[in-house]
Each structure stands twice: as structure tokens, then as C-alpha cells.
Write a structure and sequence with these properties.
Blueprint (H helix, E strand, L loop, with lengths): L1 E5 L5 E7 L2 H4 L5 H15 L58 H17 L3 E4 L9 H10 L7 E5 L4 H7 L5 E5 L5 H6 L2 E5 H12 L1
Parallel strand pairs: 1-3, 3-6, 4-5, 4-6
Antiparallel strand pairs: 1-2
Helix pairs in contact: 2-3, 4-5
Family: Belongs to the universal ribosomal protein uL4 family.
Protein name: Large ribosomal subunit protein uL4
GO biological process, one term: translation
């Protein structure tokens, strides 16, 4: 798939870049995407939820009243789950929500997500660039010139660029990652995928391994 290369002003440079069919033109696998996104979201969970059981509640263990003859149900101590302030039955406990996925499946999911973006014409390729200083205004101008200010954007760089990353950090709909950090969730969550020419080469090399 051939895509025109734009400069940071949103103008065509006359150059074109070939998006590899092995990455942007495969038969998408929806189930692989589902599993990869599910794993990503599960890994974000802290799993620190906790409710106290009756053996963890501070309180007296004295029997509240005699076993028989009261006309009411028998009761043990005040820490019973039946009473206000008692322990909770089968309450949430700390746990790890993460799970394992094979590397080949995760690779297939990423390529499927990239293919969907290409099929929807939501991939924009721009020249490699950098900022001289950290300025949110510079990044806001970049996405405005590319006519993508109203949608969520994911900019993929070939390598870390602190000035570009910090310039985008205060913009709600903008996210910047390097090619090796690219994941299925971020690709699908973005309305437009912005790739630098260097990032296209890096992705091609990474998926070729």
C-alpha cells in the first residue's frame, strides 16, 4: 500500500512510502485483537482491592445472647457478616489479573490492528522531525496543520524524542510512542495513526525478525 508523505505543515512532499503488506495488508484476526486488548487492560489493573473477613475485624468475640429461648435467630459474636460492621463473606481479595499470551499471537493482533487502520485510510505518514524545545503550542500546531486536531492521534516515532513527547503530554487527544512501544490497544484507540518515515522502517524491521 502506497501512501503520500506529508511535511510538518501538512503539505505533500512529493515523496511516497510503501506500507508493507505483511504488516498493513494481512487478513485481520479479530479474536487475536480481542485477546491482546483484554490482556492490555487486565495488566493495567492494580488488583489491590480488599475487604475484611470476620477473622480480620476488630471486635469482641463474646456471644451476644444465649443460644435458645430468645425467639430470634442464634448469633455468635458481633463480627458476624450478618451484623452491621461485621466481616464480609467472600469479599474481594488482592490478586494479579495479568495473564500470558504468545508472542506470535500478540504480533498477529498488532498487524491486524494496523491493517484495519490502513483499510480505513486512517494512516498518515509524515517526515521525520524534531522540536528545538518543549512547547505544547508546537505540537498543537503540528496536528492542526495535519487536520487531525479533532480526533485522537497516536504518533509513532522510530526512537525516543523527549522534546516531542513532552510537547504532546498536555494534549488530551494526543499520544506519542516509539515503534517498539506500539501496542494493539493504542492503535485501535486512536482515530488517526501518525507514522514518521523512520517509524515505518523501524516497524518493518521489527516485524521481519
Amino acid at each position: 500500500m502506497e501512501v503520500k508523505v506529508l511535511n510538518v505543515s501538512g503539505k505533500e512532499t512529493g515523496a511516497k512510502v510503501q506500507l508493507p503488506d505483511a504488516i498493513f495488508g494481512i487478513e485481520p484476526n479479530d479474536h487475536a485483537i480481542y485477546l491482546d486488548v483484554k490482556q492490555f487492560l487486565a495488566n493495567q489493573r492494580q488488583g489491590t482491592h480488599k475487604a475484611k473477613q470476620r477473622n480480620e475485624i476488630a471486635g469482641s468475640t463474646r456471644k451476644l445472647y444465649k443460644q435458645k429461648g430468645t425467639g430470634g435467630a442464634r448469633a455468635g459474636n458481633i463480627k458476624s457478616p450478618l451484623f452491621n460492621g461485621g466481616g464480609r463473606v467472600f469479599g474481594p481479595q488482592p490478586r494479579d489479573y495479568s495473564f500470558k499470551l504468545n508472542k506470535k499471537l500478540k504480533s498477529l493482533a498488532r498487524k491486524s490492528a494496523l491493517t484495519y487502520k490502513a483499510q480505513e485510510s486512517n494512516v498518515v505518514v509524515i517526515e521525520d522531525f524534531s522540536f528545538d524545545a518543549v512547547k505544547t503550542k508546537s505540537y498543537a500546531k503540528l496536528i492542526a496543520d495535519l487536520n487531525v486536531a479533532d480526533v485522537k492521534t497516536l504518533l509513532v516515532l522510530p526512537a525516543a524524542n523527549n522534546n516531542v513527547y513532552l510537547s504532546s503530554r498536555n494534549l488530551k487527544k494526543a499520544k506519542v510512542v516509539t515503534a517498539d512501544q506500539l501496542n494493539t490497544y493504542d492503535v485501535l484507540n486512536a482515530g488517526k495513526l501518525l507514522l514518521t518515515t523512520g517509524a515505518v522502517k523501524t516497524l518493518e524491521e521489527a516485524f521481519a525478525k
